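so i finally got all the pieces together for this one. its two components total, 635 residues if u count the protein bits. some of the lines might not be protein, just check the labels. i wanna see the whole assembly predicted at once instead of chain by chain like last time, that was a mess tbh
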Amino acid sequence: MADLVLPPGIDSTKLAAIKRAFAAAVGAANVFFDELDRDSYSDKFAIDDAHHHPLGAVAPISVEEIQAIVRIAGQYRVPLWPISRGKNLGYGGSAPMLAGSVVLDLSRMKKIEMDEENGTVLLEPGVGFYDLYDYLKARGLKYWLSVPGNSWGSVMGNALDRGVGYTPYGDHTSKICGMEVVLADGGFIRTGMGALTNAPTWQLYRYGFGPAWDQMFVQSNFGIVTKMGLWLMPEPESMMGMDVELDSPDDLAPLIDTLGPLRREGLLQQSPTIGNWLRAAAILTTRAEWTDKPGALSDDVIAAIRKKFGMGWWGVSLRLYGREGVNKAAYTVLEQAMAALKPMSLKPTTWLRGQPIEPTGWTGTPLTFPMQNANWHGGRGGHVGFSPILPQSGRRALDQFHRTYARYKEFGMDYQASFAFGERHLINVNAVLLNKDDPALMKRVDPFLRTLIADAKAQGYGEYRTHLDYMDTVAGTYDFNGAALHRLNEKVKTALDPAGIIAPGKSGIWPASLAGRRGK
Amino acid sequence: MRVWPILLGLAGSAAALAQVAPHKPAVPGTPLDGKGLFQEKCGMCHGPTGMGTGLLKRRVQPAMLEQRTDLAADYVVAAARTGIGNMPAIPRGEVSDPQLNAIAAYLAAGKAPAK
C-alpha cells in the first residue's frame, strides 16, 4: 500500500485544513485522500513502488474550480500534479514526480466543442480518444482521429506529452491550435487568437500576434491546460497501403534509407513505424509458451516465434491517404521501392469511402489491445520506455539497434523496439517489459535504463519523453552551454510559480524554492 | 503495428468495436445506467477487442464480462479499485463510487443463482 508522504512543510493539522478547503471548493465527493486513493493514483507500472506516492487527489469539473484549487494550494504551499486521464502508463501514469503532491484529476472535465466546417475541436482534459470517437460517430461527422497504440487515455494529455499516432495527423502536438491555461497565481489565459475576445479564429491560426506560447505548456509545468484546440483529419476518399515484413536485423538500414526520402518528399504523408518481431509477439503470446530460461531470448526461440506468426525481424505498415487517383499513382512508386528491398512478405491493402473500414490505428480507431504486452512475462506486468531521437539515417539507426540490442542481452532483457518516422527524425522507442513478480528482473531495470540513457548521450542522442524516475537524468543530458536551456526553463518556472504549486519536477524543471528535491 | 491485422484476424469481431453506443450522461435524480456506464468507462478494455478481453481469454471463458454469470458486485468493485492481474486500479476521480456500484450491479445481474 502507498505510504502517507507529506509534502515539505505540511503536517497533519495543515492536511486536515487543506482537505476541508478542497471539499468546500469542489464538494467532498470529489476529494480523495484515503489509503485506497493513494494506491489507485500511484504508478501502476512503477519500477520501484517506494517512489512517487501522491498525498491524495481532487477532481474539479470547471475552470473556476481549478482556479479555486490552485489558490488553496498556493495558500498552503501544497504541490499539485495535474493529470488529464492519467493513462500515460509507461511514463508514470497518474503518479506525481514529487511524493506528497496532490493529484489534480481532470478526468471529469469532458466537454467537446466542434467546428464541423473547419474540422477542429476544442477539448477539455478528460475527453478520451473513445469519447471523441463516439462523438464523431454519433453525429456522422466525416473526420478521423489519430490515436496512439494505447487509446485509453486523454486526447489532450497525449498531445501535451507529444504522443504520436499513425495517420498523417500522427504528430499530435503539431495539431494543437489554441489553449486555455490556468496559471499558478490562479489567473488564466488563452493563447494564439484566443487572446482576442470573441475571435472566431482561435482554432484556425496557431500563432496570434507576438510570441506563440502553445508549446510552452507542452511537457512543462508552467500552467494547467484546461482547454485545447485540435485539428482533425477529414475522412479521405481512399486509403491504400501495404504491410511489409523483412527477414534480417540488418534490413533496418536499407528500409529506413528507402522510406526517409519518400517521407521527406511527401509521397508518404503518414509517419510509419518500423517494429521488431517482439513488438507484435508480446501482444499475441506469452514468454512462458516458448521458454522457461531466464535472460534474453535465444535466437532459436525468436526463430520459432517468428515462424509461428509469420513475422519478419522487422515489420512496417505503410498507408496512403487521399484521392483514389493520387493514391494509386503513389502506391505504384511505394510498391516498387519496397519490392526492391526483397521483403519476405508484402501484403497490399485498399479501402474506399463507403466500404467496411479496418478498425486499426491507421484509420484512427481507438484500441487498447496493444497493452496486452503487459502480460508477456505472465506476472503483474507493465512496460517502461526508452525513446531517444535519431536522424533518419539507416546507418545510424542500425548502429543504435546493435548497441541497444547488445545491452538488452547483457542485462537479460527481451528486446522490443520500434523506429517511428517523423518528418525529419526517428523516434527509437524501446520498451522494457516488466514483471513485478520477478524481483531479480525488476532489480536490473533501473541500471539498464540508466546505461541506455548514457549510451545514447555518448552519441549525442536524447530522449523525447521519459518516465518520472528519469526526468532529472534526461533533463541533465540536455547540457549545451552549461545547460543554458534548462536554466532558462527553471528561471521561467521560478518567475511563474515560485512556490512550485504546479507539477514541480515535471521534465526535470524545479523552481528555485524546491531545487533541493532534484534527483531525490 | 502489423500486429493489428494479425490479432484482429484472431479476434474475429473487431467491427463490433465501432458499434458501442455512446453513453448518455444521467439526468440528476434518476438511477445511474449501469450498462451505459460500463460501455463508457470499461468498454474500451472489456469490449470485444479490448486488452481486458484479450487477456481474460487466456484464462477464463467467456472472456467478455457482460457474458459472465459468476461476477459478484463486491468482487467487481474490489477488482476495479485495487487493480487485478494486468488491470490497473481505477481511481475515484475517473469512476465515482456511485458509478462503480451501478456498473458492478449491472455485471452482477447476470450472476447465476447459487446451487
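Chain B has a mean pLDDT of 81.
The two ends of chain B are 47 Å apart (CA to CA).
anyway lmk what u think
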